Amino acid sequence: MSTKVDRWSELVPIMLATESGRANLASGMPLTSVRLTDSIAEAAARVVSSHEWRQAVGRYHGVLGNPELRDTIAAFFAPRVSSEAASSGRENVLITPGAQAAFRYVGEHVRRQSRRLLMFGPEYPEYGTPGVDSRMACSAIMPGSGPVFRYALPDVEIGQDIGAVVVSSPGNPTGKVLNPHEIHILATKCERAGAVLVIDGAYGNPWPGLNFTTAVAPPTAFGNNVISVGSFAKAGLAGERLGFIVGPKEWIDRFAVEQSSFQVFPPVFPQLLALELISNTDYSAILAHDIRAELARRQTAFRLVLATRLNVPYQVHMAEGGQYVWMRLPALTRFGAGELFEKLLGAGVVVAPGAVFFSEEHKETDEAWRSMRISLTAPAADLEYGAGRIAEVVNGLH
Ligand SMILES: Cc1ncc(COP(=O)(O)O)c(C=O)c1O
Asked: In whole angstroms, what is the distance from residue 313 CA to residue 218 CA?
């Protein structure tokens, strides 16, 4: 492979060069809409002229985050919280400067305990914080109907060496949404090992609410050792760096200590903005109608191109949520994947090679190279162009 891309950092320069006219279907940039941006801009103007903002702007503020925002988030999660959770109020919520901050706190907690972090490949590459010993177990492939498949969590033992298990749901890159049964199995294993189960709902409910299927419950239930991480990034506020952790009080208190030791409290303004949006506007409805509905439409359109134009065996992960198509070519090898990536680049299309979502110990396997992640948030014309080129190039490889 002449353009060796098996890490996200190697993909970035290629994506940046894409300004030169290539269709960038690799980036995970969130989808937005004029209506969403307008609504945020109007809410921001109200916040700036509010009494609350004037009161808060010149002062340092609490490490846990805005109490009203914490109450409001807790209220959204309350109906989904399992009976094991002692209560569901502000004491169950920590506001963070983006979901990624939460993963740092989890990593730090695990590192201090001299334990490891466990995830299931393919997975979002940002959980393996530097300095944290992490391991990845690969998910098993369960065939569905036609080209559709679904990953099953591997049946691994979770031993005392594991301090935390982290899983994205809806999944980046796969689009898999954990169902209550899967959460239960993981939570039980984690509880036995004294590990915390971290469910990253950056694409999930309540915001941005990119769950396409109602057949499976949103991954928000938490027991004594389960926490949910949320983010406003895919809900119009990526640049504002706003996320949160919902979970039992003892975990919230623990991560609040991490947050204060990192000294990266969430800024006041985005918190007031989010509070205004979720309390006083039709924010959730706009997300559902503009963002989720558009992504669901793009999923269908992209899959249709593959179904009608690909004449080689292929698979796509079940579209349960999120903003990506995860396409798997069963016959592809590591060598072939390099050639495919090169040819796609030559045709003016950048995709994220599957290996980016596997850890070091798995990058050498063919399985890590059989798939690619296609982001559905590229401009519509690029997406249409890219879908056609992907079909042509893949057909030409065989
Ligand atoms: C699975 C997942 N979690 C979290 C994030 C980042 O969230 P934030 O921007 O709030 O740090 C992303 C961003 O792409 C993501 O894909």
From this structure: 32
State residue 319's pLDDT score: 94
- pLDDT for 30 equals 97
**Reported pTM:** 0.95
User: Smallest Cα–Cα separation from 370: which of 145, 149, 125?
Assistant: 149
Distance of CA 200 from the midpoint of ligand 1 (Å): 8
Task: State the closest ligand 1 atom to the C-alpha of 101, by its place in the atom list counted from 1.
Answer: 11
The residue to mutate among 11, 172, 177, 295, having the most atoms of ligand 1 within 8 angstroms of its beta carbon, is 172
Question: Ligand 1, atom 2: nearest CA belongs to which residue?
Answer: 202
The domains of the chain, with CATH numbers, are: 8-34+285-397 (3.90.1150.10), 59-281 (3.40.640.10)
Quickly state the pLDDT bin for 322 (edges 50, 70, 90).
very high
Q: Is 302 helix (H, G, I), strand (E, B) or coil?
A: helix
* The two structure tokens encoding residue 162: 């594991």
Asked if the model's pLDDT at residue 1 lies above 80, the reply is no
Three-class SS state of 105: helix
State how far the alpha carbon of 68 is from the alpha carbons of 23, 64, 233, 272, in Å. 42, 11, 20, 9
